[in-house]
Amino acid sequence: MLAIKRVPTVVSVNQDCGSVSRDCLQSCFLTGFDLPLFKYTKKMKTTELQLLGDEEVPSSPPTIERSFLGTLLLSKWEERASQGLFRYDVTACESRVLSGNYGFIAQLNEGRHLKKRLTEFRVDQVLQEFDPKKFNFSKVNRNEVLFQFGEGEEAGYYDITPILSSPDFVLINVSPIEYGHVLLVPRLFDFVPQRLCANDLLLALYFTAEVDCPYFRVGYNSLGAFATINHLHFQAYYLAYPFPVECASITRINKGSLKSSLRISELVDYPVKGVVYESMDLNEIAISVASTCQELELRNIPFNLLICDCGTRVFLFPQQALHQVSQKVLDTQVNPAAWEIGGHIVLKRKEDYEHATEEFVTALLAEVSLSDPDFQDVKNIICK
Amino acid sequence: MKNHKLIVSQSLIRSYRASIQDELQKHAYNFVLCDPGLPDHPIVYASDGFLEMTGYSRDEVLGRNCRFLQGRDTDKRAIVEIREAIREERDCQIKILNYTKAGKPFWNLFHLAPVFSQQDGRVVHFVGVQLPISSKLAARKDGHLTGLELSFDELEFEEHFDNPSCKNYHLSEEDKQRAFAAVKAVLQELANSSCKGVSSMRSKSFSEGVIPPGFVATSLLLALTRIPHSFVLTDPHLPDMPIVHASLEFLELTGYTREEVIGRNCRFLQGPDTDLAPIEELRSSISEGQTCTVRILNYRKNKEPFWNSLHISPVRNSSGKVAYYAGIQVAVSHSSEEDEGRARMQQLGTLGAIKVAVRSIQTGAVLRKSKTIS
Predict the structure, then answer these.
(1) What is the distance between the alpha carbons of residues A159 and A146, in angstroms, rounded to a whole number?
(2) Residues B36 and B134 placed together within one structural domain of the fold
(3) Do residues B26 and B103 share a domain?
(4) CA atoms within 13 A of residue A4's CA, in its CB half-sphere
């Protein structure tokens, strides 16, 4: 068993306690309680998006429709913040851009990490069985649930509805990296472990598209790539600043075709090797990305995903399955997961923040990057 | 957005003399002016040359963001480069694949330049000059022509544009100089016609770190103008806590123009029948750095009263310290429970969006080395 030092964070206040609290989601589900519901519709997204450019182009004068889901999410989040449900005020955390080529964003966040380490599960196995004894999202406090997210014929919002039969939930992360940090948990009560399939990824893409904001990004970490909970979930937050990986040079690796607008490119000159999938068709991206990820899971290659540009751009970063992380890097207690690889680094110690440099971040990220031959194998999987 | 044409035309009148459109008309260049202070950074002026080059009519481009020029094969990297230059409020000259209205692609030497207000240092407009590059220059070493010469439904088409070597052909110095000259001429024209003084460069004192009060960086402005609700940002560090930003919806709600509200304390919205109790509650919350919601009678410019459900909150920037106090207004007429619920959601959602915007790292952060694409 690999003894790598991971630093988990607390995403729910109930994470530390052993017993199931009466207030937790599971109990409430059984007794029945009401939650707001946001219904999205698949019909809307595939017809509205046009093939011009990277965002939808209105053909009439620009009455820019801003997403209601975004407003809902932000308002519920702000409400929870005013109720003191977060462990700290993330807006009081300082951030700066590191000088250099990439523009990495460093944040000083002294409240985020636990003082003691929890080892929830093996970290050298990408696929692991769900263990109901460990913490999962049915054990979160009911206050941490913002709303249900579900599909319907028509888009709509319902203030108070009973919980759906197979609900997808949006929860808060009580140790936020940024404002609006939430967890998207597809079919929570199916108790699926952290593994990817096209439908669940598609849900995440619709979620991103429905929020309709270029500052809102969704991330996924497989086990072994710094996921902290083995219960299927995505994370998301707002950052009104470009992620360095979004600005990186790319070069196409898949063949173009008239039937498909899917472009798959590899990152050029970025500390971590990775690929990016781009298309206006969310279905196409979901199927292609999920198929690659399932292949990676079978080969025990951990990976991270970063969903950007309202769901039309998905980065995939495979990580080294077994790696030695240097002591210096361990001491900073930074886990190179989706956000970090994207270029947003949260630092726990003041001295690390003040002395952070691009060289330090580049070295940190390079530790998890695949070797050239291993990455070539991944590209072969993608392009076959 | 109501009356967007009016808003777009006001963008020019606000900064330049009325004759500016005629003055700009004299120049034969292809260029646009865009206003970062309006939602989605729209075009507020387009030259005849630009319209001819792209095949659009004036009505089809005014009020729209330039991204309609981009298409399927436009290099993402080039788009990112332009966005970065806008964020960082600096020049940028770049080769980018654009599309005409008919869908025909063409290589464009695009030059972007900010126009700074000498009064408060803000970027008033961005000038965008376009120079289409002829297909002769686009020839590859092996003699095959690319771009406009190919038929568009050939599978090869994509490969040509994706081929990295295709992007590295040389622009002539002459082309680059022409672009520079065009930008310079337009900027000069704007400076000559400006009411309060604009320039292609910031004032000396600004560059030395003396930031005028009420300065709002373009990157913050672009984020704030995405928020489609009535709100103001006030600066609690300045005397009498003046408004430094007001959303379009606020101006529409109250009937004032931007110039009539920026720099003033919000109390101008109060009037003869406004109760003292909510005013006192606001004052007390602000002095303690707290949030609060009050129901207060306010007055539009035309003296018409309206009930305002006002929510105020301190907002922090990337330093982690309080930079502004946000005030979010919801006009409430009938107070049903559902209305209150929706109003509350709008207020908190707007506050969240403001917090996200203000928290972002603004200009003044360390600049990235700009990557040139020749």
Answers:
(1) 11
(2) yes
(3) yes
(4) 26
